[in-house]
Amino acid sequence: MAYTIKDVAKRAGVGIATVSRVLNESPNVLPETRARVLAVIDELGYRPNHAARQLVTAKTNAIAIILPFLTRPFFIEVLRGIESVVANSDYQLIIFNVDSPEQRTRYFNTLPFLGRTDGLLIVSLPLAPPEIKRLQAANLPAVMIDTQASNLPSVVVDNVGGAFKAVEHLISQGHQRIGFISGQLEPDLGFTVNRDRQRGYEAALTAHHLPVQAEYLRAGFDRRDWGHQAALELLDLAEPPSAIFAANDDLAFGVIDALRERGLKAGEDLAVVGYDDLEMAQLIGLTTIHQPMEQMGRKGAEVLLAALNEGTRRPTLHTLAVSLIERASSAKPSKA
Amino acid sequence: MAYTIKDVAKRAGVGIATVSRVLNESPNVLPETRARVLAVIDELGYRPNHAARQLVTAKTNAIAIILPFLTRPFFIEVLRGIESVVANSDYQLIIFNVDSPEQRTRYFNTLPFLGRTDGLLIVSLPLAPPEIKRLQAANLPAVMIDTQASNLPSVVVDNVGGAFKAVEHLISQGHQRIGFISGQLEPDLGFTVNRDRQRGYEAALTAHHLPVQAEYLRAGFDRRDWGHQAALELLDLAEPPSAIFAANDDLAFGVIDALRERGLKAGEDLAVVGYDDLEMAQLIGLTTIHQPMEQMGRKGAEVLLAALNEGTRRPTLHTLAVSLIERASSAKPSKA
DNA sequence: ATGAGCCATGGAAACGTTTTCAGAGCATCT
DNA sequence: AGATGCTCTGAAAACGTTTCCATGGCTCAT
Prior knowledge:
The first copy, chain A, is α/β, with parallel strands linked by helices. Chain A has three domains: 5-48, 434 Repressor (Amino-terminal Domain); 62-157 and 293-320, Rossmann fold; 159-292 and 324-330, Rossmann fold. Chain A is built from 13 helices and twelve strands. In chain A, the strands form two sheets. In chain A, strands 2-1-3-4-5-11 form a six-stranded parallel sheet. In chain A, β6, α9 (193-207) and β7 form a beta-alpha-beta unit. The first copy, chain A, is elongated. Chain A binds chain B through residues 47, 49-52, 54-55, 58, 60, 62, 70-71, 76-77, 79-80, 83, 87, 92-97, 103, 112, 114-116, 253, 257, 280, 283-284, and chain B through 47, 49-52, 54-55, 58, 60, 62, 70-71, 76-77, 79-80, 83, 87, 92-97, 103, 112, 114-116, 253, 257, 280, 283-284. Chain B binds a DNA duplex (30 and 30 nucleotides) through residues 4-6, 9, 14-18, 20-21, 23-24, 27-30, 33, 48-58.
């Protein structure tokens, strides 16, 4: 068995309370005593038992992050941002991946993190009011990233504004017929990205006195093959669009795939703009909206740590800016 | 404050031991008693305190995963595999990201997971014998993924064999002059992938009676821009190779980039083969070696869980197979 | 010289569980 | 009828900390 505080105390010839004081850097310990205790700790390789400490302090020194689709680049980047901040604190990071609505409700019903974590980072998953209530009842500080809850601190990006920028860019290039391809507008897990970006798309058209045409709107799935299929559908219209705005880069890749299949080229025969600015976008030369994904993670983690350490707990809303990255896929069209 | 087991006991008119028995599904409890206790638990919304439970059982119900470069696709896929297995157990997953040698040594010296986790999954990071000793001294079951330690269970892929396959494929396409681009052969964190794949490259050449030419070997960094630069260097040789094997897909993307810059096309002017089979590889049409990344994670997690639940602790070695995925980038060359 | 106040220290309670142990009740066997 | 054994139960010990409280020694002002 591992050594306990008693072993240290005995060996150092002091009481366990003194050892505890040394451990917790309490002042009132004679330097000489402290040195002796530290020497023994070092000699025995003693390490305080976490569980015992947790039991009495009621602190876990861990925070949980709940995110969907661990595998998608967006979430990875966010995770990376979070990790970079948390690694420099003395908190540990527990991961919960949620891929299905069932898992989601299971998590928020059983709250398996309760008592195992001091705080929560919730990425992209919108919470229902009763769920928020339950968190607050449990006195568990939470920060939302990429979703918003009115009574919780939230870190978001302006999806409507970003989409607006994307479409406005296309319009400024002379495009009048602009298609929009997105994933589900009302997905199982309640994401609002697609809806928000569609709103931005429509707002930009309207602001420039262009009509919003139903046949140019293609909401399907958040998968590349849907981007592919939807692009083909748009190309086959009697009057096909001269530009396509895809609600995320992955869909845009599908679009580019479809173009290639038809012997067409993005940026020459049809302008394409994506959203996310994944690493791949640069390689492919895709014009897109850059989201500060890692920064979102960092900011969220910082807000949570501040709440934990200083007790700051105001539900502030942090909105991060997005920017347009111009690349070859939206060069000026040959035929306006 | 939250309710404790005492509150439940009092309210149900039983002793705390009985509540504990109900909680732990011990047999010897009268069905009627059990029902009464469960009713009270439900009524109060009682949840057992983790720390207290841990303290007495000396079990944390958490496992830690230690991996480098959380951001690279390879590790993400492995992580996803791990997560998918762990999510179905009642363990939780704590993440430690290690990006620098300093962090690495810090982690393995302080062992911050000690007492917070029941087991360890170590991805790609080779351990020095004293480090392994320390883990075993702490009685902490560990499984290595994508590295190997003689006295710990390990899940690996055959990097030498995979590289062999890749190069043999190029040779079978008629190539005689084959370049090899890789990251550092002796990187800071001690990965051996690059070295292993180089060995496979050399073995394949030798097996087919082709010379290993030093000027065709380019070891640099695990970054796309190195692939780019090294490819240019190879192209500028007096007698440039007709094919390039890149030690990972990312490097291969850099190669393709360089070709494009010179107005050349992979698969037509020069054959390119990568390694990893990232999602992007498919999009780009890169011939590559498919690694079962997610499966590695799953397997590793399964082995660890088995060790935890059943006490199986033999240091078995699990070698997973890799396969060649032929795509356009290694079509038959026009001029052999 | 004496009391007030401070500092360093140790003993013991408390945290909320699990688990050991002993006992009560009851049926079964001799 | 008494011994035996089984099932269910509760009291109490144990886990390893932190923290409260008491105490003894010391300094310093009176």
